[in-house]
C-alpha cells in the first residue's frame, strides 16, 4: 500500500476521497468531514458520559474530562486574566477540536483533518474574526490605537502603522501554518520510514534485519507525534488566549 | 520548548508576515495599477513585520505593560 512501484509515496495519505457512496459523492462529503463529525461526537461523548456519575472521586472518563477542563481553564485564566472567563467555551471548543483531530489522525487508517491548510486556516480565521470583533466592541475606535504605540514620534507613523497592520494580519496565517505544517511533517516522516521498512524488508536474507532500524525509528516517532499532537493543540489554545488578552486589554 | 521548536516558530512568524506583505502589496498594486512599486514597499514592510513578530515572540507585549 505504501509502495507503488518501489517509490516513496508520502503525500497520497492527504488526498480527500468521498465517503458514504453516492450521497457523499454528490455533496462532496469527504473522509475529512467524517472525521470532524467523529471527533465532535467523541468530545461530546467524553464530556456528557464522563461527567454523568458526578462522583467526588472521579472514575477514569470523569478524570479525563475534568483534567481537560482544568487544563484549558488554567490557560485561559493565566493568559487572558481579568474578564477572560467568558471566552473559556470558545477556547475550550477550539482546543478539544484540534486535539481530537491530531490524536484521531494517529490511529491507523484514520485521516488527520488538521493536516489540511483549509481546515486550520478556517479555524484561525474564526479566531481572527473573534479577536477583532471583541476588540472593536469593547474599545470602539480606541482599538485603532493598537496599531500605533503611545509615545512614538509622530513622523514614524508612516512606517510603524503598515508594519503593525501587517503583523496583526499575519496572526491567522502563522497560527494556521504552524499547526498544518507540524501535522503534515509528522505524517510524512511516519510514512517515509514505514516505506523504508517495506523496501528494506524485501532485500533478501539481510533485509528483515535491516528493516528493524526504521521500525525502531517509527516506534519512537509515534511517541513523538503524540507529544506534537498535544503540543500543537496547546500552542493553538495559548496563542488564541494571548490574542484575546490583547483584544480585551489592548497592550 | 526545545530549540527546534523555537526555530520553527520563528521561521513560521517571518514567512507568514512575508506572505501577508506580498499579498497586500500585490492586491493594492492590482487595484491602483502601480505594479511593482507597492509590492516592493510591502515586501519590505512584511520583512520588518516578521522581525517584529520574532521580537514579540521573545518579549511578549503583555508583560511590558
Report what the structure shows.
The complex is a heterodimer of chains A (251) and B (65). In chain A, helix 2 (31-50) packs across helix 4, helix 4 (88-104) packs antiparallel against helix 7 (207-249) and helix 6 (157-201) packs antiparallel against helix 7. Chain A is built from 7 helices and no strands. In chain A, 70% of the residues lie in helices and 0% in strands. Chain A has 251 residues and is an all-alpha fold. The model of chain A has no long low-confidence stretch (mean pLDDT 88). Chain B is mostly helical. In chain B, helix 1 runs antiparallel to helix 2. Chain B is elongated, with a radius of gyration of 15 Å. The interface between A and B is medium-sized, with 20 and 25 residues.
The most extensive interface between chains reads: A-B, 20 and 25 residues
User: Percent of residues of chain A in helical segments?
Assistant: over 70%
Total number of strands of chain A: 0
Describe the largest sheet of chain B.
Answer: none
In DSSP terms (H or I, runs of 4 or more residues), the helix count of chain A works out at: 7
Order of helices and strands of chain A: HHHHHHH
Instruction: Return the structural class of chain A.
Output: mainly alpha
Largest sheet of chain A: none
Rg of Cα set of chain A? 22 Å
